[in-house]
Specification:
The complex is a heterodimer of chains A (202) and B (258).
Chain A (H helix, E strand, L loop, with lengths): L1 H33 L14 E4 L4 E3 L7 E7 L6 H14 L9 E7 L7 H10 L7 E5 L2 H11 L3 E5 L2 E4 L2 E5 L5 E6 L6 H12 L1
Parallel strand pairs in A: 3-4, 4-5
Antiparallel strand pairs in A: 1-2, 1-5, 3-8, 6-7, 8-9
Chain B lengths: L1 H20 L3 E4 L2 E3 L10 E3 L2 E4 L5 H10 L42 H10 L7 H8 L12 H12 L26 E2 L14 H5 L13 H18 L9 E2 L3 E3 L5
Parallel strand pairs in B: 5-6
Antiparallel strand pairs in B: 1-4, 2-3, 4-7
The chains are: A alpha+beta (202), B alpha+beta (258).
């Protein structure tokens, strides 16, 4: 009896000790199987999970294979985001139609609490961004913070419905490596467009 | 039975080893306050939480990288830490003779600090939490209008290489927390919410109050200057940066979620 309870305690203490490293090693496994493809600077190293506007659960590496054009927004935004979204559409409109299937325009919400998949889907429809080459992502609070850090995007919730944030559009290769960032609103998109097309040539 | 005995010893060693590098924590009673830098009307609320008494030491971090090889400096991925990561350490698992195990670990990226805390069942403090605890001196929870407190912080900014000192070498504040000022700068969870890097005209507006100083140098101005330095550092950092005078500590919610 004594030994029994002893064993139980041991078992549980062991369990509590390894819980973190366990999670760690599984994360390592997934990256190591991929390591021949993914470089050290690829965003596909992030293991966070996201919901798309279609309600699919994905990791960033599921986006591999296409050039990614990424921006961080939130749908209840009145000031900068409509212009950022307009910038995205403007960039998209300058890409030759036949190249669009090779590109994914990704809009990541910095307000995951409000921006549910259904809300993102509605936003996509409203803004005529519901095509195959548009993707909207809802993450977790931590996942979004981490992703913003990778993009060097700054943001802060300034009221229950408002955020202030930097206006950055980033371009990633098919393997998730950042090749270009455009900062500011309504800036000339030419360089961004040519960078996107460049990644397709490589 | 002998196996059982050996198992116990093994686990006990693991346990004590773990306990040794788990920093002691103290409770912080939450409240509402106006951050040092910000508009007068902008109050923030901080809930009750626990904070590490000391910044994370070289020793504790050494244990961590042994358990989590992906954070060894030879193995860390560049997206999570630039080439300065742990650059003061001699090898993957030794820090070198010129340093103390009891000094705060520095040359740490935000990703590394964030994961370290998560692995201890803790998290990085928010800016608001960190600033809240840091406005205390030895006897007051809010010493920001005390001249000596501000003078102390500013004199630290002028002192070189305080990051080489050991943890606990500065003062114990009102909350029983050491080293918030006088040793190293510290990462915060939401450091990237400071919008003063000026990447867009809109964002810069938010902080224009930063630059409207008055001409007279009173206690308030000194206090704003000390805080401005911290916010400016946060605003200029990227998450994979590693600085020789930037360390971190962890906090924990008082009531763990769920």
């Amino acid at each position: 009896m004594k030994i029994n309870s002893y064993l139980t305690i041991l078992f549980f203490s062991l369990f509590s000790l390894i819980s973190c490293s366990e999670k760690d090693s599984s994360a390592e496994e997934t990256t190591s199987t991929e390591s021949n493809e993914i470089s050290e600077t690829s965003i596909f190293n992030l293991t966070t999970e996201w919901n798309t506007e279609e309600g699919n659960r994905i990791e960033l590496k599921d986006l591999n294979g296409k050039t990614l054009v990424v921006v961080m927004i939130y749908t209840s935004c009145q000031a900068a985001c409509p212009r950022l979204v307009a910038d995205m559409r403007n960039i998209e409109s300058q890409i030759p139609r036949n190249l669009l299937p090779e590109i994914n325009f990704v809009l990541v919400s910095i307000d995951p609490e409000t921006d549910t998949p259904s809300r993102l889907k509605a936003f996509a429809k409203e803004n005529l961004m519901d095509g195959e080459h548009w993707t909207f992502l809802q993450g977790t609070e931590e996942g979004v913070r981490e992703f913003a850090n990778v993009l060097a995007v700054k943001y802060k919730q300034i009221s229950p419905i408002d955020f202030s944030h930097s206006n950055i559009i980033s371009v990633f290769t098919q393997k998730g490596e950042m090749v270009h960032q455009q900062e500011g609103l309504g800036v000339d998109n030419k360089e961004t467009v040519s960078k996107i097309i460049e990644t397709l040539g490589s | 039975m002998a196996t059982l005995f050996r198992l116990t010893i093994c686990i006990l060693m693991l346990w004590t080893g773990n306990a040794y590098c788990q920093s002691e924590m103290v409770p912080i009673k939450g409240s509402t306050y106006t951050p040092l830098y910000g508009r007068d009307s902008l109050q923030v609320s901080v809930s009750d939480f626990f904070m590490d008494v000391y910044p994370v030491t070289n020793q504790a971090y050494l244990e961590f990288v042994k358990e989590h090889p992906k954070w060894k400096k030879s193995q860390v991925k560049r997206i999570f830490a630039d080439e300065n990561y742990l650059s003061a350490w001699e090898t993957d698992t030794s820090i070198g003779k010129s340093q103390s195990l009891q000094s705060p670990v520095t040359h740490i990226s935000w990703f590394a600090a964030n994961d370290y805390c998560a692995c201890q069942g803790k998290r990085l403090p928010s800016i608001d939490e960190w600033e809240y605890v840091a406005m205390a001196n030895e006897s007051l929870a809010d010493a920001r209008r005390t001249e000596a407190y501000n003078a102390y912080i500013l004199s630290w900014y002028e002192k070189p290489q305080t990051f080489r000192n050991e943890v606990g070498s500065t003062f114990k504040n009102y909350w029983q927390v050491y080293d918030l000022h006088g040793l190293v700068w510290e990462w915060t969870y939401d450091f990237n919410s400071v919008l003063i890097s000026g990447e867009s005209r809109k964002d810069v507006d938010k902080d224009s109050n930063l630059f409207c100083g008055s001409a007279a140098v009173g206690a308030t101005d000194l206090m704003n200057y000390a805080a401005f330095m911290r916010y400016a550092i946060r605003g200029s950092l990227k998450a994979n940066n590693n600085m020789k005078n930037l360390g971190f500590r962890c906090v924990k919610d008082k009531i763990p979620p769920k």
